[in-house]
Amino acid sequence: MAQRKHINVYGAGLAGSEAAWQAAQRGVEVTLYEMKPKKFTPAHHSQGFAELVCSNSLRSDRVTVASGLLKEELARMDSLIMEAARATQVPAGSALAVDRDKFSAYVTEKIQNHPLITVVEAEITELPTEGITVVATGPLTADTFADWLKDNLIGEGFHFFDAVAPIVDFSSINMEVAFFASRYNKGDADYINCPMTKEQYDAFYNALITAEEAELKDFDKDLKVFEGCMPVEVMAKRGYDTLRYGPLKPVGLVDSRTDARSYAVVQLRRENREGTMYNLVGFQTHLTFPAQKRVFSMIPGLENADFLRYGVMHRNTYLPSPELLDADYRLRKGYGEGQVYFAGQMTGVEGYIESTGSGFVAGLNAARLALGLEPLIFPETTMIGAMAHYISHGGLGDFVPMNANFGIIPGLDHRVKGGKVARYEVYAARALEALDRIMNGVMEGKQ
């Protein structure tokens, strides 16, 4: 009798649980290693799998919102996490929220009772030398394993803190107010500049230094990143002119349309090659998301800005993924001879559903490798494929974690009337049509 194909999965969070389930559903035996309940990270407290730590909300359920489209894609492909979310859903308007305990219990029961999944309660300290492996140990990977990865696989590119600025949709920036220019006209006018008068700066400054900050978790309270990458609100509290001599310095920036000189200038830098996303330079922040929306919308030109990602500052172990991973989340060089996959927030995806999506792709492709099949790479026109492409290729500049957003999906070859929602409806229809073609091909054995 032929031996059944097998893979290992490390970590039973959302990504690891999804990866294990997808592999097992394709007839591959899975050994799932999870250190709970023998050992917990500082963020986790329950013994169950797929524990939701910070929120019970999985964000919007509408396909015209990026996270909603990703959820619909996963649901159409029989995601365990989406099945659990629907089974344990609680009322939350247009958002998908769940009963956290019931959600975790649902996933745990499904995993533990699957005939092809064996759960081993053990802390992993190194990768095996043989076999196909999916690593999904999370953004708080235990120190011993994190050190092993750094010493044997990642090197100095391993990131231990996540400090990123907000990103806005270019199409939502008011370019009648903002203008393109580089300081002293050096370069190719790569920056968008949002000019402020003294009155506008005063209002913004006072709102910034009094805005509500996000609550720090215990494991974030010793963040060394605050000295090397100071939150904009902390910088502002050091003095009224600190920002004007720092990231809001107006020197050398003149609007050629008016020759006007500003009291302060907020600069935005292109985030991707297509120019659909721009980040606020120097605006790493620990403000709550509602506070960011309120305060940063006071910046002239951003009054109606669509924030594709808010700023975050927290402990987060993640890889320099574009240097290491392919679009199937497989390690392309180094340890494991092409048999190691990564999934979850350690790859640089941000959010529960994004972690689930990475686990789906990694688990699916680990199973396909075990079965002797070619990798399945999802097209960039799907949200799950766009996330995988971002992880494997990155944007411009330093690689930073990213959540699902329409800015990472290739644009349309035609204009859509009706505004942003109408345009996103077309994106969603295109994505779901492409996904249906792929899944039909898989079921017919063509892929």
What would your notes on this structure say?
The protein is α+β, with helices and mostly antiparallel strands and 447 residues long. It contains 13 helices and 18 strands. It has a six-stranded antiparallel sheet with strand order 10-11-14-15-9-16. Strands 6-2-1-7-18 form a five-stranded parallel sheet, with helices on one face. Strand 1, helix 1 and strand 2 form a beta-alpha-beta unit. The protein is globular and about 75 Å long.
Topology:
Blueprint: E1 6-10, H1 14-25, E2 29-34, E3 57-60, H2 66-76, H3 80-87, E4 89-90, E5 95-98, H4 100-112, E6 117-121, E7 132-135, H5 143-154, E8 159-164, E9 167-169, E10 179-180, E11 192-196, H6 198-209, H7 225-228, H8 232-236, E12 254-255, E13 260-261, E14 264-270, E15 277-280, H9 289-296, E16 307-309, E17 312-318, H10 321-324, E18 340-342, H11 352-370, H12 383-393, H13 419-443
Brief write-up:
The protein is of the alpha+beta class and 447 residues long.
Summed over residues and divided by their number, the pLDDT gives a mean of 86
- The tally of domains stands at 2
* Overall CATH class of the largest domain: Alpha Beta
The CATH H-level superfamily of the largest domain is FAD/NAD(P)-binding domain
Instruction: Report, as a whole number of angstroms, the end-to-end distance.
Output: 27 Å
CATH names the topology of the largest domain as FAD/NAD(P)-binding domain
Low-confidence regions: 223-228
Strand content: 15-25%
Number of strands: 18
The outline comes out as: globular
- The neighbouring-strand order within the major sheet is 10-11-14-15-9-16
Share in helix:
25-40%
Cα radius of gyration in angstroms: 23 Å
